[in-house]
Recover the amino acids of this structure.
């Protein structure tokens, strides 16, 4: 018979002790305690307006999920496969314990053949994660991490214990599907397919594992008018030559060509009894670590070409990641695609994302760097942990290995850095802290089940020096900018690959006011402060404002705009600076793209998908063709990251603090494909000692304009916010004609101050010379919202000029 896989989702209930006594609730699979209680109205949704306080008790609550699975007739073997149990689970069927597990990142199966002919009572008991973790911490000693939460004693999503951008949402539940599987002649347990290109020839590694009497396996690779079929035996691991198949190319380098691979298990009669389909793209990935001077490159190369990574760090998109639908992934990934992102790092404190995520990246040609799930902690190297890590890696590599977008594996986030730099050595007192996972367990699993992709043991990482924070090679994380210095310091760094850096600022006004249930945002409000999880985050936001503005902003739209502006400036300068080191630096991966709840955080897109000013800054900085005024070098830098020459008129303007245009100059420029050029300011302006002028530099080349204040010191004086606005509503759209009567810097329309729903604005942080005008388009979700926005257009239009006057 053909293998039958039925999903088991019906009739689940959740029983647990609540503050109101022992209770039973309807439960969802996939699901979690939190989402079941949200559905039952017991707690609010922390992604919208629920509070941490109302759900604090859940982290210490044992829970039981149960359901009756209807009787099945028909012969063969029956198994229950659990794709994900979060986390300390004991599974019993009809009262008999069948499984104990403590790793949410892997799947487990149990045999239920002897009981499946009757109705089965399935019970999954979850031990409360927090008390158990604390107990282990007592028994094993403290394995340090910066959060003082024991997330490192078993394999559970680290950030659910709270992070510097996320709430504590320690939960339990059946977070991935359960399958009732029925089979007799044979079953495919594991199909691993990995595509590569060796010596110019596309190759496919096909590895199968299964059980039963059937042993013949057929494989069919097809698409784009090509097809290749062959047969092999179950349990084999072989590499097939796929000559003539097209290559998969990352964004900007050609088509992201994908082929489907169908692997079928055949019985003696040649009938298909089980099948698995995957999608692959043929490409070869390598890391360029060539020497230059006393340094080394760190460049991800696909098909032999360096892909300059215009990247973002990705965190779980929901505190309860089982809720993230394919549509939600698609919306977020298309949004980042629209700002020219070509690389995503899936960060190690989260999860191995669902296949939907990697499917989208495969299709769009976005390259993905996947961390194994270790973050900012020492991890106990117990025999049980070694087993868990090995099995988890085996499963993750098998599931994700087919995805063309996945180009690099990484041992984890900042664990080696933590050991070297965060004072762990004393408390660890010689105990092993996880390094063997990164240097042995994970590379061994990769060699066995992948064998095609580069791997680094962690990030940051140095390929030249012992110290992972060394700047002469590998990947770097740059955090002093946010913590202490302000963004000008980015311009003193020259990493080989900037894998983390970012600047924190408020999520959308609309998202945050809704979350705290107040009409205003006040930086001194303790309810608002609960949404800022960064260490001393509100102080650091305030420090940034002091560095940038001589006036004080502490609440209301002025504070909100100013704080978003500082984040946006930091994002723009950081990204453009790393891009301007085009030859020696091969990537900028901004921390962070998304948010999991209403937050004041490093995200550029907030949890409700509202675009922060930093999102627009990222869009400017990630354009294929970019202009950047370097503050340190006092140069104008032009980058052409396209295959076409860039030929246009370069217009430059030197503007005084009161908006007077001091000098203008123009010249024709031609930039070769994939090249950069720079001009000293003294070369392009006649005015001497530009550094002494309290004013602005404005440059435009074709469509692209950039503007930057010359001084770093806090701005004292700007001319008035003299703009004329003419607004017009057309359906759900508001068209605004903005006319500048003096020099206007960073004009931004903030419809979220009044609109009910998510609204997008065509352009933000606009600089206009005296007399110039621009048409800004605001897309609302309804005509009512558009009317509201139009009626308040003066009120919601901000600029540096308005802020300072
Ligand atoms: C890095 C990340 C995260 C953290 C971020 C902001 O260390 O790896 O752990 O959220 O910085 O502090």
């Amino acid at each position: 018979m053909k293998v039958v896989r039925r999903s088991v989702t019906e009739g689940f209930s959740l029983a647990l002790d609540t503050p109101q006594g022992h209770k039973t609730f309807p439960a969802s699979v996939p699901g979690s305690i939190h989402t079941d209680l949200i559905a039952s109205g017991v707690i609010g949704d922390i992604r919208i307006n629920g509070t941490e306080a109302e759900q604090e008790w859940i982290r210490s609550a044992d829970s039981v999920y149960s359901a009756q699975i209807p009787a099945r007739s028909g012969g063969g073997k029956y198994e229950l496969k659990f794709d994900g149990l979060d986390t300390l689970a004991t599974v019993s069927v009809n009262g008999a314990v069948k499984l104990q597990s403590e790793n949410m990142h892997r799947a487990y199966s149990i045999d239920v053949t002897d009981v499946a002919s009757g109705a089965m009572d399935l019970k999954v008991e979850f031990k409360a994660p927090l008390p158990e973790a604390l107990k282990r911490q007592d028994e094993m000693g403290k394995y340090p991490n910066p959060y003082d939460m024991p997330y490192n004693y078993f394999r559970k999503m680290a950030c659910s214990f709270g992070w510097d951008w996320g709430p504590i949402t320690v939960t339990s539940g059946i977070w991935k599907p359960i399958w009732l599987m029925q089979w007799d002649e044979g079953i495919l347990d594991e199909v691993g397919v990995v595509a590569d290109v060796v010596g110019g020839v596309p190759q496919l590694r096909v590895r199968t594992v299964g059980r039963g009497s059937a042993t013949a396996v057929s494989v069919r690779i097809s698409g784009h008018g090509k097809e290749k079929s062959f047969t092999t035996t179950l349990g084999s691991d072989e590499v097939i030559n796929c000559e003539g198949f097209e290559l998969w190319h990352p964004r900007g380098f050609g088509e992201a060509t994908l082929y489907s691979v169908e692997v079928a298990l055949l019985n003696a009669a040649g009938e298909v009894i089980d099948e698995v389909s995957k999608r692959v793209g043929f490409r070869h990935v390598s890391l360029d670590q060539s020497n230059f001077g006393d340094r080394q490159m760190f460049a991800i190369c696909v098909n032999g070409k360096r892909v300059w990574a215009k990247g973002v760090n990705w965190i779980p998109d929901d505190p309860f990641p089982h809720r993230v639908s394919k549509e939600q992934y698609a919306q977020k990934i298309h949004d980042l695609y629209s700002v020219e992102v070509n690389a995503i790092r899936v960060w190690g404190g989260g999860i191995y994302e669902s296949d939907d995520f990697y499917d989208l990246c495969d299709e769009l040609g976005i390259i993905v760097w996947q961390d194994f799930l270790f973050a900012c902690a020492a991890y106990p190297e117990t025999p049980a942990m070694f087993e868990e890590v090995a099995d988890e890696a085996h499963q993750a590599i098998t599931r994700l290995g087919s995805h063309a977008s996945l180009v690099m594996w990484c041992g984890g986030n900042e664990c080696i850095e933590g050991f070297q730099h965060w004072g762990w050595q004393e408390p660890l007192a010689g105990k092993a802290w996880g390094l063997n996972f990164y240097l042995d367990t994970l590379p061994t699993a990769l060699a066995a089940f992948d064998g095609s992709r580069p791997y680094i043991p962690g990030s940051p990482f140095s390929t030249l020096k012992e110290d992972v924070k060394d700047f002469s090679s590998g990947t770097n994380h740059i955090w002093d900018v946010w913590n202490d210095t302000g963004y000008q310091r980015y311009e003193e760094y020259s990493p080989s690959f900037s894998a983390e850096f970012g600047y924190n600022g408020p999520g959308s006004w609309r998202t945050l006011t809704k979350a705290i249930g107040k009409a205003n945002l006040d930086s001194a409000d303790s309810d608002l402060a609960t949404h800022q999880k960064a260490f001393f985050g509100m102080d650091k936001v305030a420090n940034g404002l002091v560095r940038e503005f001589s006036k004080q902003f502490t609440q209301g739209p002025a504070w909100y705009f100013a704080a978003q502006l500082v984040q946006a400036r930091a994002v723009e300068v950081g990204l453009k600076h790393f891009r301007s080191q085009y030859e020696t630096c091969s990537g900028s991966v901004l921390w962070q793209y998304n948010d999991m709840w209403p937050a004041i955080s490093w995200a550029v897109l907030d949890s409700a998908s509202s675009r922060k000013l930093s999102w627009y800054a990222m869009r400017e900085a990630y354009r294929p063709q970019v202009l950047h005024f370097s503050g340190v070098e006092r140069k104008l830098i032009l980058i052409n990251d396209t295959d076409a020459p860039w030929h246009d008129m370069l217009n430059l303007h030197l503007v005084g603090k009161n908006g007077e245009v001091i000098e203008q100059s123009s010249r024709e420029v031609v930039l070769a494909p994939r090249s950069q050029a720079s001009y000293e300011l003294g070369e392009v302006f006649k005015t001497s000692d530009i550094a002494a002028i309290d004013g602005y530099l404005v440059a435009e080349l074709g469509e692209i304009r950039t503007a930057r204040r010359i001084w770093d010191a806090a701005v004292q004086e700007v001319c008035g916010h003299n703009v004329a606005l003419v607004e017009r509503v057309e359906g759900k759209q508001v068209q605004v004609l903005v006319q500048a009567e003096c020099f206007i810097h960073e004009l931004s329309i903030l419809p979220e101050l009044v609109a009910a729903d998510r609204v997008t604005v065509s352009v933000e942080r606009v600089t206009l010379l005296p007399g110039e005008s621009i048409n800004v388009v605001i897309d609302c979700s309804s005509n009512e919202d558009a009317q509201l926005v139009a009626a308040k257009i003066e009120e919601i239009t901000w600029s540096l000029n308005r802020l300072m006057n």
Remarks:
- The chain has a mean pLDDT of 97.
- The CA atoms of residues 460 and 476 lie 5 Å apart.
- Residues 163-165, 349, 375-376, 413-414, 477, 500, 591 surround beta-D-mannopyranose (CB under 6 Å).
- DSSP finds 18 helices and 48 strands in the chain.
